[in-house]
Design brief:
19 strands, alpha+beta, disordered N terminus, three-stranded antiparallel sheet
Amino acid sequence: MLADTLREKQTSHRRTHEAMGTVMVHEVCGPYAEESLDAVQIEIERLEGLFSRFLPDSEISQINRMAGTDEVEISFETFEVLSRAVGFSRNSRGLLDVSIGPLVDLWKISRNTLSVPDQDAMEMARQLVNFEDISMDHVRQAAGLRKAGQSIDLGGIGKGYTADKVIEVLRTFGNTSAFSNLGGNVVTLGKKTNGESWKVGIQHPRATGRLIGVVSVCDQSVVTSGDYQRYIISRDGRRFHHLIDPRTGRPAASGLISVTIIADESLTADALSTMVFIAGLDKGTEILKDFPNTHAILVDENLRIFITHDLQDCFQSDRDVHVNIIK
């Protein structure tokens, strides 16, 4: 009874701010909620300062500038996230490559001009993409790139790592109920103060403002990759999104347009959402078998919706939405 009374007296504290090029929202309930939110915001900004390739003084930017010349001594966090990124790249069957920076830059220029890169430029950039060219010195805690022109992009994994660190900070302050949305990377701590699971809406990829459904989670992360998040329509009417297939150098064309991964770790969910999106329905489903306690919601280009069978009890589809179960 006393625990219930104390829980009722605690109020949720909410904060919205911008970081990592997106809007972030946090909700925390606990005796040190405001202090927790301050610490969360500071930690996110600190990690962005280490990981962002768009900040010239970040450690990733330093590694990229020194490509082909020397290694750079880096922090524990940068070494850790880069090690995990290389590990996922090695085991992704070519679907994920953390050295994809040259292709990202090439397609960014194309988004600005509403045109498609020419084949020669695409092939030149693709030749620079190879995670095996990332050298890592565990003794010196240093990393580098072997060829000039190569660059690291943590876009498929860095925000997930940061989301996991947010949960660590919240736990440090003794919180047992919290929710953070890092621009599409959602992490949850415990349940809501009323004892219910957190409910995370899954965006309809072709209907702005509409959901395909809601998934209920507790102590899990929910991450979505979709072709509707960042894209251009070229002058000839073709859609080009930001999720590039390292094998072709082009935006992935796997037949999937949205992939949501639910996992215990946000970094894993972040990497898998990209890998499955690029792999497609059948191959992506096979990949998920290697990751126990990981679940998925997939939408294909015909707007058919698939969920892994273990989500049947915690996914509520929107009205008029038919769901196919992946056995």
